[in-house]
Amino acid sequence: MELRRLLAAVFAVVALWALLGSGVRATYGARVTADEPQYLLSAISLVEDGDLDIADELAAERWRDFHDAQLPRQTEPRPDGSELSPHDPLLPVLLAPGVAVAQVVAGDWQHAELAGARVVLALVAGALAALVVRTAVVRLGVRRSTAVVVAGAFALAAPLSTYGNQLYPELVAALAVAVGAAALLELAAAGEHRRWTPTATWVGAVVALPWLGVKYAGVAAAVAVLGLLLDRRHRVVALVALTVAGVAYLVVHQRVYGGWTVYAAGDHFVDGELTVVGNDPDHLGRTVRIAGLLVDRHFGLLVWAPAYLLALPAVGTLLRRRDRVAAVLLLPLAAGWATATWVALTMHGWWWPGRQVVVVLPLVVLAVAAFVDGERRAGARWVWPVLVGTGVIGVATWAWLTVEATIGGLRLIVDFDRTANPWIQASRLVLPDLREGGWATDLVLSVWTVVLLALAAWGWRRGCSGTRGAPPTSASRPGF
Questions:
Q1: Contact 436/442 with Cβ under 8 angstroms?
Q2: What gap in Å lies between CA 406 and CA 52, rounded to an integer?
Q3: 111 by DSSP, 3-state: which?
Q4: Separation CA 205–CA 209 (nearest Å)
Q5: What are the residue boundaries of the structural domains of the chain, listed by start?
Q6: Predicted pLDDT at 81
């Protein structure tokens, strides 16, 4: 099958899979929860009023179509009576076309706007999976069979599949990171070049990320640093463009939202915008999230998609390589993981697990694809059964939970812990519960930390200056 047809098939399968969970209720009193209504109301306002002022939508209780219970207030009324949602506007802008089409097609159907918005995110999920496959094949030299299976193992499992129908900017941000990484890998392979396309692509990704959420600023900065190092010919123009975009971001937020970030428009941050990270944050205590984001029994990645265990040796192998590919994949990944660890208010909340790290998961998938393909080329027989086995568990786990939440009494966000899935029940016996704390949790977390470090060290030992067992790509050159 030619690559274009393969990518089209990947796009279609993943997008349709994401749509399967679109009818699941988030809570007992709403189809959406937490920040989702805010994004959807802003999108509706853009379609109907041409602005982000949701005061009239709130007054008319437009949220009743998708949120049965009383909607918690997040906005702070302004002197002119307008109310702006304290969330960056790019996601509502992207959801607006889906909302508009749904209103035309579905007419007065109660859930039209929600359905239209979820279709947009399902398309994003499909596009992300297809882009990851293309990048793995074209930029990393991964065989198509490996790239498709690896991408499927992650894209069809939580949290990537989950955020293919949740109204959050996470998956769009992940797509922006994947787009930026693809452009950077092209630059790493090309060296000196005259084409403007890669430059415009990575600069566009950097500019877009803060407009999806200021929490992505660290990842955007990492991509920008890499772009400026790799893109020598267009470095000055790129730097000027980024500077202008940064100034525009700050000016717009000051004039529109009344502060340096959108949080100035919210009613939760009476002590200042920076309290979004906590009133008295314990950054040292948050360090447990480095491992907890993977191994927490409720909100870690492994319990829902055990294929993420392969990320540890994959990262170890990249650390050993110390080339341009490693830099492109690992620097933004480290920035995103650090933000989720020390900046995010919590790793637990009214959302699906893994939300804080979704933005950098495409980089994890690319790293795993390169690692698995290298092991296969080297004749390692263990890697394919492990990939397929853990991938099947992750996909089946998400499918199981979707069925439970669709035809059973379970709700996706508030009580996913109640799932009867035997894999979830069994795995939680050996995973720590970071919501509880105590010496037992500390002990189990310590054991898992040792296991994770051992897997990374094992990957380091199996790594070499190029890809293990695979022909090195032109992007594998050391240095900048």
A1: no
A2: 33
A3: coil
A4: 6
A5: 3-476
A6: 80
